[in-house]
Amino acid sequence: MNLLLTLDENYLLPCKVMLDSFFASNPQEKDPTVYLLHSAIPGRKLAELEAFCAGFGAKLHPIAVEAALFENAPTSKRYPKEMYYRLLSPLILPRQVERVLYLDPDMLIINPLRPLWVQNLRGNVFAAAAHTGLTEMANEINQRRLDTEHEYFNSGVMLIDLNAARSLVTAEDVFRCVSEHEKELILPDQDVFNMLYGKQTLPVEDVLWNYDVRNYSKYLIRSSGSHDLNWVMDNTAVLHFCGKNKPWHADYHNPFGMLYLHYQNLTVRRLGR
User: Fold this and answer.
1) Which phi and psi angles does 2 have, rounded to 5°?
2) Beta carbons within 8 Å of 3's beta carbon, 6+ residues apart
3) Which domains does the chain have, with CATH numbers?
4) Which positions of the chain have pLDDT values less than 50?
5) What local confidence, expressed as pLDDT, does residue 80 receive?
6) For the whole model, what pTM was predicted?
7) Is the Cβ–Cβ distance between 173 and 196 less than 8 Å?
8) What is the 3-state secondary structure (H, E, C) of the chain?
9) Nearest alpha-carbon partner for 3 in 30, 36, 28, 26
10) 113 within 8 A of 237, measured Cβ to Cβ
């Protein structure tokens, strides 16, 4: 299994927590490979992450993204070049990598990812989940805002057929989309993904593969009460701690916050801090 991460130095601890949870919940995955796209993570920090992964039998491949790729990119504080990394990953990752699973670092993996990894994309290039199925109003707003007809996909978990994506994705298309639609973009990279590649994306169940922990009550209501905490722990693979407030913040309040802190404490102990 190939995992893809894109982050900066500030997210290294959450990244390790996420990876720790992945290794614990996916012991059947032998010799997984972790690709990390970054711009300026110090070598010492990368060596620490490499050793951390090696402790679980995983191989880390850090890739320092060349600045030349972004010479024509619209960049600013709101649009840092790092936001383009996952969108342009098919152009950056080694040619021999044929499929990759992108994961945001603000997640816990609590069940096996193998069923998602082997998902038949049915001619699509990507697979992702939409959170907006929780409310039709939000879905309609995003469709009007971005002039799309499909569901609004969350790009925090993306399965990518890299061979197909290399024939579809271009830096020019991505940069042009940002320039031409700057006023419409709220979550820039996610919005761009939906505008350019939503039609080539296979929908997968968010309740299994990209569970927005802020919406526990809505999931419960939508399932007529069946998707309670016990169901989530038995069935959901990815818990996504969406939003600005994160579970490692002191003022975080959510039913899943304690679970995150448990995993974080295990990781910190493993690191010997």
Assistant:
1) -110, 125
2) 19, 22, 32, 33, 34, 35, 100, 101, 102, 103
3) 2-271 (3.90.550.10)
4) 137
5) 81
6) 0.93
7) yes
8) CEEEEECCHHHHHHHHHHHHHHHHHCCCCCCCEEEEEECCCCHHHHHHHHHHHHCCCCEEEEEECCHHHHCCCCCCCCCCHHHHCCCCHHHHCCCCCCEEEEECCCEEECCCCHHHHCCCCCCCCEEEEECHHHCHHHHHHHHHHHCCCCCCEEEEEEEEEHHHHHHHCCHHHHHHHHHHCHHHCCCHHHHHHHHHHHHHEEEECHHHHCEEHHHHHHHHHHCCCCCCHHHHHHHCCEEECCCCCCCCCCCCCCCCHHHHHHHHHHHHHHHCC
9) 36
10) yes
C-alpha 212/C-alpha 202 separation (Å) is 19
| Residue in 241, 236, 235 with CA at minimum distance from that of residue 254 | 241
